[in-house]
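Worked example 2:
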Amino acid sequence: MTESESIAYDVVVLGAGPVGENVADRARAAGLSTAIVESELIGGECSYWACMPSKALLRSVLARADARHVPGLSQAVQGPLDVGAVLAHRDEYTSHWKDDGQVRWLDGIGADIYRGHGRLAGPRKVTVDGPDGERHVLTARHAVAVSTGTRAVVPDLPGIAEVKPWTSREATSAHAVPGRLVVVGGGVVGVEMATAWQAFGSKVTVLVRGKGLLPRMEPFAGELVAEALTEAGADVRTGTSVEAVTREGTTVVVTTSAGDRIEADEILFATGRAPRTDDLGLETIGLDPGSWLSVDDSCRVTGSDWLYAVGDVNHRALLTHQGKYQARIAGAAIAARAAGVPLLETDPWGAHAATADHAAVPQVVFTDPEAAAVGLSLAEAEQAGHRVRAVDVDLSSVAGAGLYGEGYRGRARMIVDLDTETLRGVTFVGPGVGEMLHSATIAVAGEVPVNRLWHAVPAYPTVSEVWLRLLEAYRDA
């Protein structure tokens, strides 16, 4: 292997997914020379195997589901989806798994791209083993930012390698519809992919170890999604785990903890994520390979004055938009420290503090119905010691919901802090509610008092009128 002479940059970023790209962008905007290292496609997991392809797959599914509840339109959309067209649409949104456009964007901001596997080789030093056997040595004057993300976890079951199970990558990039699909896991990936492939014609069986779907959201979210999946033809089994899995010819055979035998063509494990830090050289700076990286609110790694961990790898909020938010915060902090600013704005909601990671994380689950939430659930708020009240409204009671579609089913909940009379969290479940979430995010992040929200008048007749119903219910309680 040929090793180059050391090249110095102000900032070196490991990982060129959306988070790493945003760190590089903020660093370059501050006038800092920046190198970014990527071993796969520039644009990362979100662009090619997660957010973009999954939502491209689900858009047609959800649009058809909505249309089937609209008088005058429902009869026209009773047939099957054109799966070939949906998959082609997905391929367009992944740029056919080519990263030319992303490369042009990074070139445009002036960041230097190094392709290959990057590893820490001591404080402020990174080596990059390139695809042609060359080794680049990079040093960082001010910061190294680790934005390597996570990988899917597959359980260590006997024979699992021979089965060749799907993870989220295969589920979002497959080019053929399996006749029968077993989905293991009831989190976001599990329920979204169950929704998509059931709509494409797979006979889907969902196996969930816990009591229900979407365990990190309000219980009613998982209940409504499970009900809809079942009505669509999926077999949802809770309190069930996989004990063994084998492939007999082209058939996957699953044995469950209940002793059931399930046959399928493919099996998807959506059972969690692990940090991509196992081969990152953490041992050269006294950290444990394979570990999550603990950070402060500026995303600087605990105990370091130069190492940052931004995005999923710090385990604060495993969401692309939240990682990009962290990147904006970390980029500002890196720039300020490089400029010698003596005191950063690290108080809650300051320019250099990722406070939303604790108080206002938004998430939309693109199922039918959609589930959208921001901030704390009732259980989380109570466990944190807050004195709160949950206020619930049936979304079907709002005029806009009935106009959206006949038989609209959904629910809204807001968690009110009784000491401050602000919102700790909001959850919506129902068709189309994902586009309503940002209003809730503003209310939670802005700590808008309930008395002021009373003056935020929702347009009539929209589903957003549920805000008025929630506030009325709170006042009348």
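The chain is about 30% helix and 25% strand. Residues 320-338 form the longest helix (19 residues).
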